[in-house]
Amino acid sequence: MLRWHSQELGDVPPTTFIPVAEDSGLIVEIGDWVLTHACEQLAHWQRDGLRDISMSVNLSVLQLQRGDLIQRLCDILAENDLAPNQLELELTESVVMANAEQSISTLRQLKAVGVTLSIDDFGTGYSSLSYLRRLPIDTLKIDKEFVGDITTDPDDEAITATVINMAHSLGLNVIAEGVETAEQAEYLREQGCDEIQGHWLSKPITPAECFLFLRERSRGRRASLRSR
After folding, report:
1. Between residues 62 and 132, the one the model is more confident about
2. How far apart are CA 194 and CA 61, in angstroms?
3. Is the pTM of this model over 0.70?
4. Looking at the DSSP assignment, which residues form a beta bridge with residue 116?
5. Closest CA to 87 of 65, 109, 114
6. Is 152 within 8 Å of 184 (Cβ atoms)?
7. H helix intervals, the chain
8. CA-to-CA distance for 106 and 172, rounded, in angstroms?
9. How far apart are the two ends of the chain, measured CA to CA in Å?
10. Nearest-angstrom CA–CA distance, 74 and 8
11. With 70 as the cut, is the pLDDT of residue 185 above it?
């Protein structure tokens, strides 16, 4: 997740500056910078031995509408010698539905490149099942608004379980956002959720800290496999 460390304002969260960047149009330049540096970081980690990982990057509606997105993406992947399936592009439900027909066309072109695609913050927008089944996506990410109360709110439990079942029936991977507790993680495991993200796994960390985090867990996984 992008963070802004301002000398004048201190640490500015993305919820504050991303909407301003979108309104001003600067999000296109920022998004290109993020995509470039994310791919450079992934290539660096792979050279240092972290092979079986991929990188997820958010796209804004202005990036999705930009005519040169496909070519720019292909150039960045080639410059960093990355396979397309090592990159996942995330789009919020509201971004996709802002212009559904154009989005479907662009997503199909992105899919043809070979990257994986996910719908972020699912459940907070206004997508219909008729559009959802037409989208060439790989993953649905359940918004943290529902995940936060799944162990205490029966309605959120029902919504989360329904989204997981629906996504699996469409052949999609499911990721739950905003997992903060072991109880939430256990409920999601029981429901068959494929992946989770949130502070229960790790707080936001620097690239150097993330490298150590991933390396240690990679070693632990290999040791577990050897012991079986």
Report:
1. 62
2. 27
3. yes
4. 88
5. 114
6. no
7. 14-24, 27-47, 61-65, 69-79, 93-98, 100-113, 129-132, 144-147, 154-169, 182-190, 207-227
8. 19
9. 36
10. 36
11. yes
**Nearest alpha carbon to residue 118 among 38, 36, 54:** 54
Q: What are the DSSP E strand ranges found in 123-184?
A: 139-142, 173-176
Between CA 1 and CA 32, with CA 137 as vertex, the angle to 5 degrees is 40
CA 91/CA 59 separation, integer angstroms = 6
Dihedral sign from CA coordinates of 215, 216, 218, 219: positive
**Cβ atoms of 71 and 57 closer than 8 Å:** no
Distance of alpha carbon 105 from alpha carbon 94, whole angstroms? 16
3-state secondary structure of 159: helix
Beta bridge partners of 11: 5
Which amino acid type is present at position 37? H
How large is the angle between the packed helices 100-113 and 69-79, nearest 10 degrees?
Answer: 30
Q: Characterise 65 by phi-psi region: left (phi > 0), alpha (psi -120 to 50), beta (else).
A: alpha
Task: Kindly indicate whether the domain formed by 1-119 is annotated with CATH number 3.40.50.720.
Answer: no
User: Which SS3 state, helix, strand or coil, does residue 118 take?
Assistant: strand
Cβ pair 30, 2 in contact under 8 A: yes
**Is residue 223 pLDDT above 60, yes or no?**
no
Sheet with 139-142: strands ordered across: 55-58, 87-92, 116-122, 139-142, 173-176, 195-196
* Domain boundaries, given as residue ranges, for the chain: 1-119, 138-143+150-177+185-198
